[in-house]
Amino acid sequence: MSHKTPANHEQYHHLWQDVLLSMKGICNNDQMVALESLTPQVVNPTSWVLLAPNKFAQKEIEKTLLPVLQMTLHNKGVTKVELKATDNPDLFNTPAPGKKSGGATASFESNLNPDYRFENFVTAPSNNEAFAAAERVSGKTFFADSNPLFIYGGTGLGKSHLMHAAGNALRRHGRNAVMYMTGEQFVNEFLAALAGKTQKAFSNRLRNVDALLVDDVQFLGGKDQSQAEFFHTFNELIDKKRQIILTCDRYPKEIEGLEARLKSRFGAGLTVSVRAPEPETRYAILKSKAKEQHFNLPDDVAFFIAENINSNVRDLEGALKKVIFQCQVIKGDTEATIAITKAALYDQLQIQKNQSNVDNIQKVVAQYHSISIGDLLSASRRKNLADPRMMAMALTRELTDMSLKSIAESFHRKDHSTVLNAIENVEERRKNDLRFREEYETVKAIITG
Ligand code: ADP
Ligand code: MG
């Protein structure tokens, strides 16, 4: 046989990443999420155990993906592949949707994720308003004043988690017919219904639920026909006193391309936000996620990750996953240390570091020229704004290792040639314009301290 046998642990990691990449072409989003939740454990180079975080993920993969997964791994020299679920009874407290555990509640097939629950959501000042609101609307009692519940905030901050948690709780409280869908699914299914002349069935399906949960509703922006359908569904459910929960990446009034009547209805119930987590919250989330996965995360390591990954919870989870993979698979059950963590998160830390550097450069340049960051990043070509902007771009190029493309992104520019022009222009003026050269050096000295 001409199979390649992986020679070291690093290669296992790459091999698994390769497998995920080749599966991407044949899997839908949900399947990819399930696949990415797997932790490979290398028994020996040709025999692997794939550890699913719970039985639901295991089932999902068994149902449709296992043979392809086995074949893909087989082609890479891993001839024996076993799929197992982590033995963590805590994860299975909530009955799976559609299971025959709750009498009448078994009749409605819901596509809620049972792993997203209130119990495993870490509450903090940044999210406790949204948490309380989601809990309030998913009990036994219906509150007309909180309908719809509109949760908004940046990406990766727990909106979908709270929405699924509310859905799961609604079902536990006997409001069983919970329909969860993304804004994108709504649009796609509606258009398919239009094309197949099955609008009536589509409308009926949505208008007879106990609760309708639409995730990332900003997707409706600019989709006029879908908005009209949604408007009628929305009104009918409100009239029938059925709960509606919506999530969005921005405040209702700021959704581009959304009809005014929908904007005002979206904001007519209870509107709450989720914000980026504070460092203490990031620490608590890491500890909680590690515990859920039976991974011993030392305090100093948790602290290090919480301090250094400050974008959102999804990135935080991604970072933890990398550390766990490094310790369990690559190093073969080693205790996590800061050194291992630094190596595992090298790329992420670099991006984060660059971002804080460029933020600082922009701040210093803007302050020095007495303009706002908004002006510095604006499209205005006025000289008193364009000059500082060019200077900030050139300084970023000189003081960071960022590519032209990333610099362009950090300055909200589509095209990296803008950055290139700025750098050339600044270079020229530093040669020929004494005052400009002095300014440039002064600002640089402030930045580098
Ligand atoms: P959003 O929908 O806002 O983009 P998600 O709900 O998908 O974000 O959250 C991203 C990931 O972070 C999910 O895996 C979720 O479980 C996790 N997460 C977010 N906030 C929290 C929290 N407060 N406690 C526990 N996990 C969280
Ligand atoms: Mg989401």
The low-confidence parts are 1-6, 88-106
Helical content band:
40-55%
Main sheet: strands, sense, barrel: 5 strands, parallel
Instruction: Supply the CATH class of the largest domain.
Output: Alpha Beta
- CATH topology value of the largest domain: Rossmann fold
H/E element order: HHEEHHEHEHEHHEHEHEHHHHHHHHHH
CATH architecture of the largest domain: 3-Layer(aba) Sandwich
Determine the mean pLDDT: 88
Query: Which descriptor suits the 3D outline?
Result: globular
Structural class designation:
alpha/beta
Major β-sheet strand ordering: 5-6-7-4-8
Counting structural domains, the number is 4
Full CATH superfamily name of the largest domain? P-loop containing nucleotide triphosphate hydrolases
Note down, in words, how this protein is organized:
This protein has 449 residues and is α/β, with parallel strands linked by helices. It folds into four domains: 9-89, DnaA, N-terminal domain (GMP Synthetase, Chain A, domain 3, 2-Layer Sandwich), CATH 3.30.300; 118-273, Rossmann fold (3-Layer(aba) Sandwich), CATH 3.40.50; 279-354, Helicase, Ruva Protein, domain 3, CATH 1.10.8; 356-448, Orthogonal Bundle (Chromosomal Replication Initiator Protein Dnaa, Chain: A), CATH 1.10.1750. It is built from 20 helices and eight strands. The chain has helices at 9-24, 29-36, 55-64, 66-75, 128-137, 159-172, 183-195, 199-207, 224-239, 260-266, 279-292, 299-308, 313-330, 338-344, 346-368, 373-377, 383-399, 404-410, 416-432, 434-448, and strands at 39-44, 47-52, 80-85, 149-152, 178-182, 211-215, 243-248, 270-273. The chain has a five-stranded parallel sheet with strand order 5-6-7-4-8, sandwiched between helices. A three-stranded mixed sheet has the order 1-2-3. α9 links the parallel β6 (211-215) and β7. The chain is globular. The chain binds adenosine-5'-diphosphate and magnesium ion.
